[in-house]
Amino acid sequence: MKNLLICIILLLFITNVSAEISWFFTIFVNEGEISEGCQVGVALDASDELDEYDIVNNAPPPPPTGNYFDIYLFNPQWNLSEEKYFRDIRNSNYQTISWDIQIFVDSVDDFVLTWSDIQNVPDEIELFLEINENETLNLRETDSLTIVHGSVIYDYVLRIENNASNKDNSLLEEYFSVYPNPVHQNSNLFFEIPEDTSKQVIEIFNIKGQKINQIHNLDKNSYWNIKNNHREPIKSGIYIIRLNNGEKCYHKKVIVLP
Fold first, then answer.
1. Could you tell me where in the chain the CATH 2.60.40.1930 domains are found?
2. Cα 176 to Cα 255: distance, rounded to the nearest angstrom
3. What is the pTM of this model?
4. pLDDT for the residue numbered 224
């Protein structure tokens, strides 16, 4: 069996929204009148961990014969006994959010991947499905993708970007900055932040939206040692630094080099 992993990467920065505003959409796998789906989205009062918004996937196991397909959110970090979820709603204060999705297909017929309800997503959010390194779909310009039959777990990357965040870049630069950027794994990342730091917290997220470390008791000499909260070195790649001052969150994208 060809094993592939579907990653959904959500890049967004939402400001000045009320507690009532949230959105979600569903990704479906369809064969004729049969359909399976999973839901992703954001809400201001959702958490990074398993909460009341999130629903476990209870699909039956594959039958010994006949066509079978399943689509689910894969998150073993939450609970080792429950790795598959139907719905995962995350907190909307992220600049980067991602979900791992697996689509298992065991069939002699082709299937269709659809996302018909993306009208729930605000217009300033762009959605892209990366098929591979050389092919990307704009989900607002097409509404389906054919999945070739076989016995396969498919791997795609769903990237969502908020164009409205660009206008806030100058304000973010004025509030705090990080250096050097890019930074090497064996170095430190330093923060330039306002002097009143008593209530501020630095949080570090990987590109999947998983929080890997946080720093309290900030001062003008605060820095990140490019390790996770277990004091282990991290992989090279893109990370998000979030400064939470108790009233608002500010974000920076950092590149970690080998």
1. 176-257
2. 17
3. 0.54
4. 94
